[in-house]
């Protein structure tokens, strides 16, 4: 296993692998995302265009088995920026974390922590950020599609110092597995002060 980082457009040779990985991992609960290659290309292009973005990739040999992203919130799309504007948080103060996706066979090896460490270190290296943030989809506890024994990542995020926000959400649309058309989904934000920031 090897963890490698790429800034901005340097990730170009691996974008197709990251898109395929996102489609594979997000197909499962709680996202239930019915992958869309066109959406993936547009989404990942936002990150690849930003020279201050970061891709953290986990490789097993030449194969990308995990991926995590981060980007200055000012370079993200309006859907992610809006809740911060509404709260009065300057966009320039926030480094936003996109996904962390990892194939099931590679979980439990500390790679999730490595993803967070790399993105937090990158935000400190860039300088000027007071907060790191991400958002995650929420599902009803009684949703019949919820797998038996499913454990959300809340405890992991709390241990990393992230605080669940009761009043910060964004809404994104995607088509769920087995659905006819895209539907809106609500994602909740989690924030953490960036200790040691310059």
How would you describe what is shown here?
The protein is α+β, with helices and mostly antiparallel strands and 198 residues long. Helix content is 29%, strand content 31%. The chain has 5 helices and 7 strands, in the order βααββαβαβαββ. The chain has a 7-stranded mixed sheet, with helices on both faces. Helix 1 crosses helix 2 (37-49). It is globular. The two termini are 31 Å apart.
The mean pLDDT is 94
Question: From N to C, what is the helix and strand string?
Answer: EHHEEHEHEHEE
Strand content is: 25-35%
Quaternary structure annotation: single chain
| Radius of gyration over C-alpha positions, nearest whole angstrom | 16 Å
* Percentage of residues assigned to helices: 25-40%
Please summarize the sheet with the most strands: 7 strands, mixed
Shape assignment: globular
Which structural class best describes the helix and strand composition?
alpha+beta
Count of individual helical segments:
5
Distance between the termini: 31 Å
User: Strand tally, please?
Assistant: 7
Low-confidence stretches: none
Give a brief rundown of this model.
With 198 residues, this protein is of the alpha+beta class. The chain contains five helices and seven strands, in the order βααββαβαβαββ.
Please give a handful of descriptors for the protein shown.
single chain, 198 residues, alpha+beta, seven-stranded mixed sheet, 5 helices, 7 strands, 29% helix
């Amino acid at each position: 296993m090897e963890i490698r980082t790429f800034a901005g457009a340097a990730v170009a040779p691996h974008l197709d692998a990251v898109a395929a990985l996102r489609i594979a991992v997000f197909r499962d609960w709680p996202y239930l995302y019915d992958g869309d290659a066109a959406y993936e290309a547009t989404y990942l292009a936002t990150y690849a265009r930003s020279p201050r973005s970061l891709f953290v990739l986990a490789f097993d040999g030449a194969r990308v088995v995990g991926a995590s992203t981060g980007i200055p919130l000012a370079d993200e799309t309006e859907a992610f920026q809006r809740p911060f504007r509404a709260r009065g948080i300057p966009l320039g103060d926030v480094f936003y974390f996109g996904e962390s996706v990892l194939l099931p066979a590679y979980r439990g090896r500390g790679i999730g922590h490595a993803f967070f460490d790399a993105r937090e270190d990158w935000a400190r290296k860039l300088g000027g950020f007071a907060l790191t943030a991400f958002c995650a989809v929420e599902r009803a506890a009684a949703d019949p599609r919820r797998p038996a024994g499913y454990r959300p990542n809340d405890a992991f995020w709390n241990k990393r110092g992230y605080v669940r926000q009761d009043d910060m959400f964004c809404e994104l649309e995607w088509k769920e597995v087995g659905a006819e058309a895209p539907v809106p989904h609500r994602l909740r934000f989690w924030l953490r002060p960036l200790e040691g920031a310059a």
